[in-house]
Amino acid sequence: MNIVRNDTPLAGTARRYSQLPRFFRWFSNHCVLRQLDDADIARITPALAHADFARCWGGAAPQSESEVVDFVRNAQTEWLRGTRYVMAVMRKQSHDFVGWVELRAIEKGAWMLRWFVQPDFAARDAGKEMLLAAADLMFSALDAQKLYANCPRGHVIFERLLNGANFIELVPAGSLDHATGQPRRQSLYELGVQDWKAFSGTRDQAGGAVSAAVAWMAKGAHAELALV
User: How do 2-4 and 222-227 pair as beta strands?
Assistant: First the structure.
């Protein structure tokens, strides 16, 4: 087992991957991010009946259990291509399913962030932490340069989550989309690597939400840890 430790949690000190391996883990203070698996179908499906379910997705929400199954299975297949990573977010101590984060490559160094947060966690610190952990992972392990995220107009909880993770509104909802010529239904938010490093450094000094991260890969009898 090879263990790399760094007592100062700064972006850029973790092992860099050109593509995330299977069985990858990324830890924040209270949550762990891991590859979505079949067991998560049973964790997502019960939320379908919640009145706020559709508003808890940073993208199109599945409408049935079969669509949840397709979503999870497609995510597992696309993980191997290295262009889309969907990771379940679990509470460390209770193993509660907080939701998932999806990161899709849109061009070199640029990724689109989408997510689902369980309705019961949407307005809690765990919802904010999952976005912070996703950003930490992308800028630390995959050498991303920019993250983008869409947010529906008037979605106050998601706006707070994005602002709390230091995303800035790049294109407001209602402005004309250059591709379609139609008004945008969602705002486009952006977080750049330099802004993240500045924000991360400030957060570390203040004892912020994500003080350390661990990237874990298991391969047979070999395990490698990179502690940021």
Answer: parallel
